[in-house]
Amino acid sequence: MPLRKLISTISLLLAGVSIFPPPMSAADSDASLRAFMLDYQKTTSDLQTAANLAQWDAYNDGTDAAFTLAAEKSLALSKYHSDPGKFQMLKNLLDSAKNLTPFERRAAEKALLAFEQNQLPVELLEKMTNMSTEIEQIFQNFRGELDGKSYSNNELLDKLREGTDSEERRKTWETLKLVGEQVAPKLIALAKLRNEAARKLGYDNFWQMSVRFQEYDPENLLNIFAELNRLGKPLFAEVKEEMDAELKTKFGVDLVKPWHYDNPFFQQAPPSKEVNPCDFYDKKKREDIAAISVKYYTDIGLPVDEILKRSDLYERENKCQHAFSFDIDAKRDVRI
């Protein structure tokens, strides 16, 4: 501190004059928090929309350039939330504000959580973002090779659904899993890095941190699923036994293997003997199926024309192979 300023400060203190600003009143805190949140919501809305648009392009393009841009835009949002000054300011304002509406307080609390989980070195945030994006791109661009021919995920699922030879089904099922060889080491490295980041923020691991930032209690969540498992296991075993008996007869085997199921992750049951929903669509073109969907939603008062104009419905090389819906801007730009 310059000598003149030091002498001036000492003089003020000797005269009994406070050199610190008076504490902010509750009304001032409320107003300051509202101003902070207006700026925060505008800034993060722009950053999030830019990140979502870049991610949408990456999902539909699959090129290195598209995924690089998606990583940059995602990192920009994380870097904004990594600002320790903004984090502390919001924390102080939220602590001192008294007359917020429940909506205002909830919005500020959610913003605080977003800041808190990004209080990490920028280099670490960048590394995690780039590693995650690289893994996403591998999953998206991967096409399994079977008997010298490349197949999309949907084509392999069709073969699994239609195939009747156990050995051919095994080869198809294993082809669906080949992407694991490419991503496994990278996933392990990313998990270790995320756990390192979680420990920097005071958590045991990334899973625990993620659950906490979604405002769940990890132990309570595990207890809920343990109870669901306990209640559902007997019924699951009963249904699976019946299902496996059908599959043994269908494929002429004594032991049902994973490739005898139509879904490689056992996420849905095979069609029943009485009805196969796919039979309704087997003879229809993809455009016909889209038209049926449009008519259904229109008939129940939920027109989807604007959604479809922005969407990308059909399969092609390097495009994301899985169905999803995407809210681009938390307003009206929804795509599938």
Report what the structure shows.
It contains 13 helices and 4 strands. It is mainly alpha-helical. The strands form 2 sheets. The protein has a two-stranded antiparallel sheet. Strands 3-4 form a two-stranded antiparallel ribbon. Helix 2 (26-61) runs antiparallel to helix 3. The longest helix is centred in the N-terminal third of the chain and has 36 residues, at 26-61. It starts with a helix and ends with a strand.
In short:
This protein has 336 residues and is mainly α.
Global morphology:
globular
Low-confidence stretches: 15-22
Class derived from helix and strand content: mainly alpha
Binned strand content: under 5%
- Whole-number mean pLDDT: 91
Sheet of most strands: 2 strands, antiparallel
Q: Span from first to last CA?
A: 60 Å
Strand order of the largest sheet: 1-2
Tell me the series of helices and strands, N- to C-terminal: HHHHHHEEHHHHHHHEE
Radius of gyration: 28 Å
Helix content: 55-70%
Number of helices: 13
Instruction: Tell how many strands the DSSP assignment holds.
Output: 4
Question: Main attributes?
Answer:
336 residues, mainly alpha, two-stranded antiparallel ribbon, two-stranded antiparallel sheet, 4 strands, 65% helix
Layout of SSEs?
Elements: H1 3-14, H2 26-61, H3 64-81, H4 84-96, H5 102-116, H6 122-141, E1 144-146, E2 149-151, H7 153-162, H8 166-176, H9 179-200, H10 206-213, H11 218-251, H12 286-299, H13 305-310, E3 326-327, E4 334-335
Antiparallel strand pairs: 1-2, 3-4
Helix pairs in contact: 2-3, 2-4, 2-5, 3-6, 4-5, 6-9, 7-8, 9-10
